[in-house]
Each structure stands twice: as C-alpha cells, then as structure tokens.
Amino acid sequence: MDPVITEIEGPARELQTPSLNRLWWGVTASTVASRTLVITYPLLALATTHSPTAVGLTTAMLTVPGLLFYLPVGVLADRVAPHFLIRQGESFRAAIIITVMIMVALGVAQLPLILVAAFLEGTLSTVYSVAEAALVPLVAHDDKVDAALAASERSTQLGALVARPLAGALFGLNQVLPFIIGPILVLLSSRSVPRYEEKCAVAPEYRAWPTGRFRLKELRAAIVEGFQELRSHSFLRAAVILTAATNFMVNALIVAFIASSIEVGPLIVGLVLAAGSIGGTLGTILAERTQSQKWILSIHLVIWTFALMLPAVNQHPVFFAFALLLTGWGAATNVAMRRYEKDKVAADKLARVVSVSRLAGHAAVVAAALVGGLLVDTWNIQVATRILSITMVTICVPFGVWLLFLSKNRVRTPA
Fold first, then answer.
1. Which residue has the higher pLDDT, 206 or 97?
2. Which of 97, 186, 278, 294 has the greatest CB tally within 10 Å of its CB?
3. pLDDT range class, residue 81, cuts 50, 70, 90
4. pLDDT confidence of 187, banded at 50, 70, 90?
5. SS3 state of residue 80
6. Which of 60, 157, 66, 68 is nearest to 115 (CA)?
7. CA 50 to chain centroid
8. Which of 242-264 are b and which e, b meaning 16 or more Cβ less than 10 Å from the residue's Cβ?
C-alpha cells in the first residue's frame, strides 16, 4: 500500500516557534544559494569558454529541469515525507557544489562539468521548491499556518534580494568564492528542517520512501489527479492563470530592460532588479493583512497593469525599478494561493497541485526570456515596453470580468 498522509490531532501538529524560525532561515539560505548559483554558473561558463553560446546553454540547463520535473516531483512529494526530500536533496546539492568548487580551484573546470552541475542544480531546486511548499502546512500549528506561509514567501523574497548583488560581488573577487559559500548555505538549509522528534506532523504511515514499483502509467494517473484537483477550485484556476500571465509579462520586461542596458552599467541593472525583491517582501507583509481572495487577485491585476505602463511612458531605469517594485504584489497572490491550498486541497494531493502551479509560472518565465529579447531585437526598448503594456491592458479586461463572476459566486478566503 502506498504511504499516505493522515490527519494528526492535538499537540502532534504543533512545532515550537524556534523550530519554525530555524526553518525560515533555512528557506532564506537555500534561496540565496540557489539564486546565487543561477547567476554564477553562466558567469563561470563565460569565463571558461569566452562564448556567449555557452552562457545560453548553461542558462538552459538551469531552467529546463523545472519544465521536465515539476509534475513528477509533485507526485513524489505526495508519497515521500517532504522533510526527507529536502534533507536528501540539499545534501546531494552540497556535494555537487563542492565538486565544482574543487574543479574551479584546480583550474580544470570545463563546460561539460558546468552544464551537468547546472542541470542538477535546476533539478534539486525544483525538488526543494515543491517539498518546502508541502512541508509548511504539515509542521505549523493550525492557528499559525497562514502566518507561516507568509513568512515562507517572505524568506524567499529576502533570499532573492540578497543573492543578486552577492553573486556578482563574490564572483568578481574570486571565481571560487560562490562555490565556497554555496555548500555552507545549502547544508544550513538541510539542518533547518524539523525532525520527527520535534513533533513534525507526519504520520508513521507517511514513510521516508514509497514502497513497491511505481509504473509510468501510475505516474501519469497521479499527475492527472493533480490537474483535476486544481481544476475543481475556481480560485486556484484564476490565480494560476493570472500569475502565469503576469510572470510572463514582467520577465519579458526584465529581459527587454537587460537587453537594452549596455549603456546603463551592471550596478544599475542590479539595483533595478533588486526592486522586484523589495516589492515582493512588502507584498508578503500586505498579504497577511488582506484576507479576501477576490481583492488580492483584483489588486494584483490593477497594480500590474499600472506598473507595466510606467516603462512604456519613459524608459529611464527609475521607471523600470518602480514598475518592478509594484509588481512585488504578486508575492501576496502566492501567499493567498498557499493559504487556499492548505485549507481546501486534499492533503494527499497538495504537492501535485503546487507542482502544477509552479510549472505554469516557470514555463511563463522561460517563454518570457525568448520574447523579451526578441522584442528588443526586432524593434527597440520603447516599442517593446509599449507592446507589453498594451498586452497587459488587454489581459486586464477579460480577467477583471472573470473575477467579477467569481465574486458573484461568493468566493471567500477559507476560515
């Protein structure tokens, strides 16, 4: 029989605040490591080969695993204890980074090694993302889950804020430094995961590894169940479509900005991109004070439509920075989705539903990387930003009607 999650009553669901705080630090550490390496691996490929093509290949190796593995990892995280996945995945990740560090220190790092390491980094980051989302509702006490989910999203935003300037600074000082800091952060993340003896709310039946064979047909059926579960919730359908669409728009804007930033300089680029993480941190704080599902999505839609108008009006970096700051409200929608999933999605399907929503967002980011550069190459930054702004306005109208329909059907935040 496959392992299952069973409901735990009373004190078994309670984790002490120090344990939760340690978990948040672990999420931050893992995010810093991941976002730093996402920048470091392409820089290392460029320094090693002096080829822009190598940079593109390395970036692809970092992003392709999300497209391939989000759905299978969702199935796995519904069958395997999330804390086990995180510990094993982060330990393996540390070993990979240390291997690259040794190769770089010896001066023998070659492109094939970089590509393999980048692919594994992307794969293990995918595992962590889904497992962490499944873990938080299990380990936080019932009356603290909403705050815990917001804190988790906030840790991710803060980690991203730190990682972007850190990656460039460390690599600029010495190519080995990012690969020294990386394993330390990843191992800290692994050690932060709550243990069973800390009253982790995982039933004895929820084993460390699934028993028996898991056939391809069963995998497909399990993935389909995840899609069906998501489709049965109108709020989640709306939120996933909205976040995928807006992720596409803002990442296309970011790529367009970077593609046209030759005269701006790397420091300004880094500061502009950091504005998005600052906005995301503020968004998670506001999410805790905004309980209505309808209003969180509605505010998301209005703010992002206004934000994409700013760089269309003026292409100065300040306008891009302010636009990214405003789009940080998307973090509030992420928190709302996680709150809803915790309350309304069947526990044994939670990770699969999370994996579907993460896949949609990730696919949008990958597509945006192609579209943003193509817009600037075909026209210029002014035309590119106006196309994106007009597209966002076009999205706003039908989606606003859909949200109005949801409100008439009395979609409320779960108590």
1. 97
2. 186
3. confident
4. very high
5. coil
6. 60
7. 30
8. bbbbbbbbbbbbbbbbbbbbeeb
